[in-house]
Amino acid sequence: MTPHYSSIPSIEVELSISARLLLESDASPKPDPLCVVFNHPFGRGWQEYARTEILRDVINPDFHNKIKIHYCFEEQQKLKFQMFDTDSCSHSLSKHTYLGKVQCTLADIVTVQAYTADIMLNGVKRGQLIITVMDVSHNREELELIFSASHLRKSGLSFSLPDPFLDILSSKKTLMKRTTYLSSTKNPVWPAISVPFRVLRNNRGEYKQLTLQCYHHCKDGQHQLLGETEIHARQLLEAPASFPLKKNHSSKAVIELTESKTKRVHSFLDYISSGTKLHFTFAIDFTDSNGDPHNSTSLHHIGRDPTQYELAMKAIGDVIQDYTGEMFSLLNFGARSAPISHELHVRGVEGVINAYRSCLDSIKLGQTGCLSPAIEHVARSAKKHLEWRGLDCNDYFVLIILTCREIADTNQVAKAITEASELPMSVLIVGIGPTSFTSATRLEEDIKKLSQNGRNAARDVVQYAQFNEILEKYDDMAGGFQLAKQLLADIPEQLVAYMKTKGILPKNKEILCPFSIKN
């Protein structure tokens, strides 16, 4: 059975709320302020989420009660902060004087050190709201582990040395971590790997049972098991330690934990709130596989209902625009004129939709749509930022490819993605229309790392979703919501993985060099 990677939980944040120069109500020279927080879960209306305490006779309140909320990058989390001057002990808000409100998204708040906005009532400013945020997620630590092995042997009559790698699996055979593979050695010392503390315990806080599996790496993906052993997660804290391998043809085969260190983990919010910028580019398929836009069956036909391209761009754009200053880049590929168009820069989701529609009026659909030029184009932008700023680079690029056909240049795409994995970028692929997209599915890195000519991708940078399959289960709005969740959920982890690999700390903090392993 193919193991699956562990899911990443949402981040819990704590909001601290203050206000300045609150205008008093008619009933009181100084207000007795209360702030009520509302949220807007998908598919529901506004609902009360939490309240601060009531303060007495202050126009510059600093509320002590913190508001805890789960932050999800892949969702647009709408919030509304309503300020009241309390007139009684009643819990009913209708019994108090309404001072005004601020409406925003949680993304607006977490992307700055301190969020400020005017409290408005009927077009009149009634004060200023100030919100600061803190990541209070538990287990923001990880274990940095160095494993080695000795006396490994391949099965059968083969006398060649194995190319070993090591997997750590949970009791349910969920793959938690995998080392790189090393060539031709029976005594490997693998580069350090990191395991979050949170995956080592169950919901009751007890350490889990784990399995260590050692494999001989095979290029066709059918890796040969060299041996395995059961351990208790707590043993990972007790280096040095030895674990004899079972099912190995050498009775001396053993896995050794040579080093175990606890390290604090910087979160996605640490980077975003300290100035890391996200750049998003949509690349749209303009091959003739879409059909003539003048024909109602075309995937590019502009009629009464939006196209799948428009639905996808709006659903994704609505979530990510708060991280981009509402600026997007737009590319098209597959048209007759050129393999890839000049890059357009537009403002807002409506700007993306309007630019897409304008392209349909002038572009002639082509026959061959290659994805690699779009990937290489964004990779060049990422590389330029690196060359310019080096370790001070705080930009991350995300390419969103929307295509209706199988990938025509699979080898070139594999090469481009392998090279992109060394850069601050991710690649998201959306399958539009009824095509099976088997070639795109193979590019996903959820199961194993992509390999091109024996060279492994440095990290997971690809995510794929087939929109047509989602729309078979949901209406347009819910389908867009599910698409955004599926595509965007891994971006925070991918960004942090890149920063960690390069030794880049959040801005205004010391830059660390990546550690090296001494043999």
Automatic annotation (TrEMBL):
This is Copine-5 copine v. GO terms for biological process: cellular response to calcium ion. Belongs to the copine family. It comes from Daphnia magna. SUPFAM superfamilies: C2 domain (Calcium/lipid-binding domain, CaLB) (SSF49562), vWA-like (SSF53300). Coiled coil: none annotated. GO terms for cellular component: plasma membrane; protein-containing complex. One of its GO terms (molecular function) is calcium-dependent phospholipid binding. Transmembrane segments: none annotated. InterPro entries: C2_dom, C2_domain_sf, Copine, Copine_C, VWF_A, vWFA_dom_sf.
